[in-house]
Automatic annotation (TrEMBL):
Superkingdom in the source lineage: Eukaryota
Keyword Cell membrane (UniProt): yes
Organism the protein comes from: Umbra pygmaea
PROSITE patterns listed in its UniProt record: G_PROTEIN_RECEP_F1_1, G_PROTEIN_RECEP_F1_2
Record PANTHER family: THYROTROPIN-RELEASING HORMONE RECEPTOR (PTHR46061:SF2)
Segments of this protein annotated with the region Disordered: 233-256, 376-406
InterPro entries xref list: GPCR_Rhodpsn (IPR000276), GPCR_Rhodpsn_7TM (IPR017452), TRH_rcpt_1 (IPR002120)
GO molecular function, one term: G protein-coupled receptor activity
Assigned keywords, A-Z: Cell membrane, Disulfide bond, G-protein coupled receptor, Glycoprotein, Membrane, Receptor, Transducer, Transmembrane, Transmembrane helix
Parts of the chain that traverse the membrane: 25-50, 62-82, 144-162, 196-218, 265-286, 298-321
Protein's UniProt name: Thyrotropin-releasing hormone receptor
Length: 406
């Protein structure tokens, strides 16, 4: 990204003007703050998904891929700007120029492809739940991620041949810059191809697919509505049947709410990707048609900060909009007290069955077990006769049940 905003080939070299102290302080502070938060957050996302079994869902695999790509952007594009603000030129040498430029574009393109992948996965899971049983699987998600990184890695190889270091002699100083070998006119087709495939088309596809998803989730009747009407129909026959249907309605409504919440979270990620990348993309498009590019240092800094924010904000979104991620983050940081199961406080039937939603890919609330409900009383507990409830305080269970034993 530094290369795109470099000076023109036909510039007239005069006296080099250093960045002001105000610019240096503001740019270094913002880059360190945003990149620091982003690096820690994305590392936590990767660790949470890899170390927590219930978090290993197809959608979360794509979020891990996105986190890795964001880490590349923050380290390869963000951190080198600190030295640029301090010294004005390039200090990492020839191989640093090639490698850092390569990883910049690899992270940018891989993040775009990861967003496209989980958007398609959400569309299949919500709009075609039967097909999702076969298409939205964990193993298939891993294969797609491998293909995404293989494709973007090969695509970005061209940057090894497009950039080089150049020495420029000013009246008061000689500086080295990491710039492109080709002229602006030859670079335009390369840039617009990159712009189309890794920004414009993914956003157009996401707009269409999330529109179809919204129609299913927010406009069409949900299964819970059907069960509610069924409950009203059978109310006069049996109170016990109504209570059972009421419990099923609560579970179905919870699943629908979870599906909506996950989709909202991913949609927010896409919207922020579009908005935060727009200033930089617009700047490069405009400069492509101007005889003298607009390179105001403060506006260029604003465009770069937006890009770094896009790579840093995703873990914050997960924490704010996903209960599963929020709980996992707390456990990873040991921020919250460790909950110890107190069997005496609840009365439940001990069953160890797993309930899997038809969408096969609901993330992060896709899978649930009855053991997960130990922390809160279920609606069915309210209707169990007191004498028939199984209490863990019962002396007859002593020595038979130990929840702390694997």
């Amino acid at each position: 990204m530094d290369n795109v905003t470099s000076s023109t080939d036909n510039q007239t070299l005069g006296e080099w003007t250093y960045f002001s102290m105000e610019y240096k302080v503001v740019s270094i502070f913002l880059v360190i703050l945003i990149c620091g938060i982003g690096i820690v957050g994305n590392v936590m996302v990767i660790l949470v998904v890899l170390t927590t079994k219930r978090m290993r869902t197809p959608t979360n695999c794509y979020l891990v891929s996105l986190a890795v790509a964001d880490l590349m952007v923050l380290t390869a594009a963000g951190l080198p700007n600190i030295s640029q603000s301090l010294y004005g030129g390039w200090v990492y040498g020839y191989f640093g120029c090639l490698g850092i430029t390569y990883f910049q574009y690899l992270g940018i393109n891989a993040s775009s492809c990861s967003i496209t992948a989980f958007t398609i996965e959400r569309y299949i899971a919500i709009c075609h739940p039967i097909k999702a049983q076969f298409l939205c699987t964990l193993s298939r998600a891993k294969k797609i991620i491998v293909l995404v990184w293989a494709f973007t890695s090969l695509y970005c190889v061209m940057w090894f041949y497009l950039c080089d270091i150049k020495e420029k002699i000013y009246d008061n100083i000689t500086l080295v810059f990491c710039e492109y070998k080709v002229s602006r006119n030859r670079y335009l087709p390369i840039y617009f191809t990159d712009f189309a495939f890794f920004y414009a088309l993914p956003l157009m596809l996401a707009t269409v697919l999330y529109g179809l998803i919204a129609r299913i989730l927010f406009l069409n009747p949900l299964p819970a509505d059907v069960k509610e009407s069924s409950t009203k129909k059978w109310k006069t026959e049996s109170r016990q049947r109504n209570r059972t249907l009421s419990s099923n309605n609560s579970s179905c409504s919870s699943t629908a709410h979870s599906r909506r919440q996950v989709t909202k979270m991913l949609a927010v990620v896409v919207v922020l990707f579009a908005l935060l990348w727009m200033p930089y993309r617009t700047l490069v498009v405009v400069n492509s048609f101007l005889e003298k590019p607009y390179l105001d240092s403060w506006f260029v800094l604003f465009c770069r900060i937006c890009i770094y924010m896009n790579s840093a904000v995703n873990p914050i979104i997960y924490n704010a909009m996903s209960q599963k991620f929020r709980t996992s983050f707390k456990k990873l940081c040991y921020c919250g007290p460790q909950k110890v199961e107190k069997p005496a406080a609840y009365s439940v039937v001990l069953t160890y069955s797993a309930i899997k939603d038809m969408s096969n890919g609901e993330s992060p609330d896709h899978f649930t077990t009855e053991l997960d409900e130990l922390a809160t009383p279920t609606p069915a507990d309210q209707f169990l006769p007191t004498s028939n409830r199984m209490s863990f305080k019962d002396p007859s269970l002593s020595g038979r049940v130990d929840l702390n034993t694997p």
